[in-house]
């Protein structure tokens, strides 16, 4: 009954322990039969020295205003704390059983010993890190343990180096062993560095091996070339086959010689009569190179042969031209042993991508006819895992390294003023923001090492101030007469002295479109080159009719107006993403105006058979970007084996 009345009064806002209220007095508690003492109830004298902070109490006792009230009952809690202290003292004075006391003392001793050993280990670790200068936390990580093991091995082997010449393996090899990449063959650094260099071989140097390869593997394709590219034979075949299809055909041809003007072939001609009788003859034919071009080097020879094969609908046969050994520059192919599904990849592989892209941009900027035809609108699409904004493996550091190399190539080699642009916040009001991959990239770009300080390689190159990474203060003042500047995407940041604009990954987001500021930048450039790096200009329809049907045709036409000067992307099977890699597609106008589809093959190295190797074998070349259906037909082994040619 007392408990029920207490709860009811508490709900009504009445203090149930106030002595002025009914039923507030707590009855005496029953004795404790274990100790023989009266059980102490702190609530019985809870309010002996404390007053309620109600309005009536404040009038009668003004000093109570200065007391700290309890958070729940709004009463003074000082007496309650004192009573709780007395209760703890009374409980501690009770005799503890001997068995419980021993158990408690043993437990406390173990805890104290463990605490002392932990403190000693922490102190030893701190001293060790202070001596070695290693202040990275996480001693239990595998990397830290490997570093310690490496240091111990190096110290142990230090005495044997002078006697036996022993050396401790690099710690990075053990990291690769943890990832399983130690069993993979590393790419050839020497070939990567010379991948973009021209071979320099003349037509006479490669004529004999090329003639042997073509006559051995492409005899039927040479017959199709004669039927297509020889004007006299083409006219005779068209007239004969008009009455009866197949009455005039050339099943086979052989190359006799090559000159800078064309080919000399011996064609096997079969004529079928009205009653099915066949008459076979041989005829020598001279064919000029496409567009009456002059062929003097091995690179020009490969390009001319592929143009002739593609005109005949023999796209797959161009792979034989690509695979001819020691003919043409290395830039026609993709290097072996890239293993791009390892993130981060080797710095040498990233440098190869940077040089490959810079070569294409340099050639494009020097081609006045190209810039005039596309109104200065250029585009780069290079999306290995580290540069693909649609993958979680995207590394903004790799993207900014590429931008730095590209800006330096244009500014230093081309002697042009470059403005690197990153889009600012899009949207309105509280709905403003940036895509995740671009967040913080502008600040990182300004803190990069551009080697522009006094006495460095590119002294005074950067227009903007270079900030210190730690403090954010100006570390290197900018040079107003420099050749590299940073800005946002828009017409306001376009200056008359700017010559080339590089826009980093422009992309729309839900609720805002990048089309408007980017279009304003292009219009303000007035024909000056604007280079988009990995753009994502696809609409993202949002509420309020943003990027909806209205104006979509203009946005699509604007996105297609940019001329692609470089393209590299990996090919995957079906719905699988990032793994396994089935192939790649590459286009670099610095090498040739052809799109090449490669198939990735796995195997073992020819020298060390215990090491895994990776090869990219060309399948076909195209004058324009092939559609997904054509790529699927090429990558699929079963379909490709059943088809001799792939029609356009």
Task: Kindly list the characteristics that best describe this protein.
about 650 residues, about 15% strand
What does this structure look like?
It is a single chain. It contains 20 helices and 14 strands. Helix 9 (219-229) crosses helix 10 and helix 13 (347-366) packs across helix 15 (396-413). Helix content is 38%, strand content 16%. With 648 residues, it is an alpha/beta fold. The strands form three sheets. Strands 8-5-9-10-4-11-12-13-14 form a nine-stranded mixed beta sheet, sandwiched between helices. Strands 1-2-3 form a three-stranded antiparallel beta sheet. It has a two-stranded antiparallel ribbon with strand order 6-7. The chain starts with a helix and ends in a 6-residue tail after the last helix. It is elongated, with a radius of gyration of 40 Å.
């Amino acid at each position: 009954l007392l408990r029920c009345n207490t709860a009811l009064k508490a709900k009504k806002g009445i203090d149930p322990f106030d002595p002025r209220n009914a039923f507030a007095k707590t009855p005496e508690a029953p004795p404790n039969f274990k100790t023989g003492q009266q059980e102490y109830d702190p609530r019985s004298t809870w309010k002996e020295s404390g007053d309620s902070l109600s309005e009536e109490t404040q009038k009668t006792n003004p000093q109570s205003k200065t007391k700290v009230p309890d958070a729940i009952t709004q009463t003074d809690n000082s007496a309650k704390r004192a009573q709780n202290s007395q209760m703890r003292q009374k409980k501690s004075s009770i005799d503890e059983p001997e068995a419980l006391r021993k158990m408690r003392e043993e437990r406390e001793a173990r805890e104290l010993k463990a605490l002392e050993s932990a403190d000693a280990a922490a102190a030893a670790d701190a001293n060790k890190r202070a001596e070695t200068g290693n202040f990275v936390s996480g001693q239990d990580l595998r990397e830290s343990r490997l570093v310690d093991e490496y240091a111990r091995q190096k110290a142990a082997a230090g005495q044997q180096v002078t006697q036996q010449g022993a050396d401790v393996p690099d710690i990075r090899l053990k990291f690769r062993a943890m990832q399983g990449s130690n069993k993979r063959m590393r790419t050839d650094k020497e070939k990567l560095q010379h991948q973009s260099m021209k071979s320099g071989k003349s037509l006479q140097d490669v004529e004999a091996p090329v003639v042997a390869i073509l006559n051995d593997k492409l005899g039927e394709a040479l017959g199709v070339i004669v039927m297509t590219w020889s004007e006299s034979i083409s006219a005779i075949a068209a007239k004969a086959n008009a009455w009866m299809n197949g009455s005039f055909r050339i099943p086979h041809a052989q190359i006799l010689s090559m000159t800078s003007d064309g080919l000399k072939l011996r064609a096997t001609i079969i004529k079928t009569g009205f009653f099915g009788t066949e008459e076979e003859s041989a005829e020598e034919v001279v064919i000029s190179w496409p567009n009456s071009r002059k062929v003097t080097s091995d690179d020009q020879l490969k390009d001319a042969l592929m143009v002739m094969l593609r005109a005949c609908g023999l796209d797959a046969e161009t792979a034989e031209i690509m695979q001819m050994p020691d003919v043409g520059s290395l830039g026609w192919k993709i290097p072996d042993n890239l293993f791009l599904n390892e993130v981060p990849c080797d710095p040498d592989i990233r440098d190869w991508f940077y040089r490959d892209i810079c070569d294409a941009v340099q050639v494009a900027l020097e081609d006045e006819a190209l810039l005039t035809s596309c109104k200065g609108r250029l585009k780069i699409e290079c999306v290995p895992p580290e540069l693909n904004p649609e993958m979680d493996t995207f590394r903004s550091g790799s993207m900014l390294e590429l931008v730095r190399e590209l800006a330096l190539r244009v500014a230093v080699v081309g002697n042009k003023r470059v403005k690197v642009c990153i889009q600012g916040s899009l949207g309105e009001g509280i709905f403003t923001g940036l895509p995740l991959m671009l967040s913080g990239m502008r600040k990182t770009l300004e803190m990069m090492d551009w080697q522009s300080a006094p006495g460095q390689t590119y002294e005074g190159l950067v227009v903007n101030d270079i900030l210190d990474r730690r403090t954010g203060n100006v570390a290197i003042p900018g040079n107003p007469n420099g050749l590299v500047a940073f800005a946002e995407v828009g017409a306001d940041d376009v200056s008359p002295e700017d010559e080339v604009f590089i826009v980093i990954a422009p992309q729309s987001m839900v609720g805002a479109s990048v089309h408007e500021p980017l279009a304003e930048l292009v219009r303000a450039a007035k024909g000056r080159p604007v280079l988009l790096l990995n753009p994502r200009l696809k609409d993202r329809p949002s509420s309020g009719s943003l990027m909806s049907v209205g104006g979509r045709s203009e946005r699509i036409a604007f996105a297609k107006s940019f001329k692609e000067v470089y393209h590299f992307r990996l090919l995957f099977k079906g719905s699988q993403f990032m793994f396994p890699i089935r192939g790649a597609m590459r286009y670099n106008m610095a090498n040739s105006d052809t799109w090449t589809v490669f198939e990735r093959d796995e195997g073992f190295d020819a020298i060390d058979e215990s090491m895994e190797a990776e090869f990219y074998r060309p399948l076909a070349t195209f004058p324009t970007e092939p559609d997904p259906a054509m790529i699927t037909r090429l990558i699929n082994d079963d379909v490709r084996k059943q088809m001799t040619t792939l029609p356009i």
